[in-house]
Amino acid sequence: MKKIQELYDTYKVYLTRHHIERFSLAVIVLSALWVFLSSIPLRGVLTLDNGAIRYDGSVVRGKMNGEGTVTFQNGDTYKGNFVNGTFSGKGTFTSKAGWKYEGEFVNGQPEGKGTLTTEQNVVYKGTFKQGIYQNAH
Q1: CATH 2.20.110.10 at 42-133, yes or no
Q2: Fewest CB within a 10 Å sphere: which of 102, 126, 134, 136?
Q3: What are the start-end ranges of the H helices in 1-137?
Q4: Residue 15 half-sphere exposure, CB side, CA atoms within 13 Å?
């Protein structure tokens, strides 16, 4: 406790309202700059799941955001838009097995207008909801 008292006695001359206000203002400005600068999209490469997933594209705050390409260890790829790490917006998912979906995604699933082409080149074009083709008759 004595050391704390000595430390206080040494630096109490600097503990004025003026100095505390300046310090507080500096902390606020630096915090605002950090929030602003950390939300600027940067081009980057992320390797996830011990190298099983590789992402090359726009990164915001360490997450896949914006345009990019993800390649999975099994050879599947997705090229398109990401929001907070999930497929969202326009994109193309190509399976190594030979099928492909081109269209709109929401929360990682085909949702909206799109085209699914199977391994046998059968084409399903229309509306998808939660990954399921809606125009079946």
Answers
A1: yes
A2: 136
A3: 2-11, 17-38
A4: 6
**What is this structure's pTM?**
0.73
Cα distances from 137 to residues 49, 119, 134, in angstroms, run 40, 21, 9
Kindly report, residue by residue over 43-85, the tens digit of the pLDDT. 889 998 999 999 999 999 888 999 999 999 999 999 999 999 9
Tens digits of per-residue pLDDT, 50-61? 999 999 999 998
Q: How far apart are CA 23 and CA 29, in angstroms?
A: 10
DSSP 98: S
Kindly list the domain boundaries of the chain, sorted by start residue.
2-38, 42-133
Q: How far is CA 75 from CA 22, 34, 53, 131, in A?
A: 56, 37, 10, 20
User: How far does Cα 66 stand from its chain's mean position?
Assistant: 8
* Close Cβ partners of 61 (under 8 Å, ≥ 6 residues apart): 38, 39
Q: Is 54 exposed, middle or buried (0-12, 13-18, 19+ CB in 10 A)?
A: middle
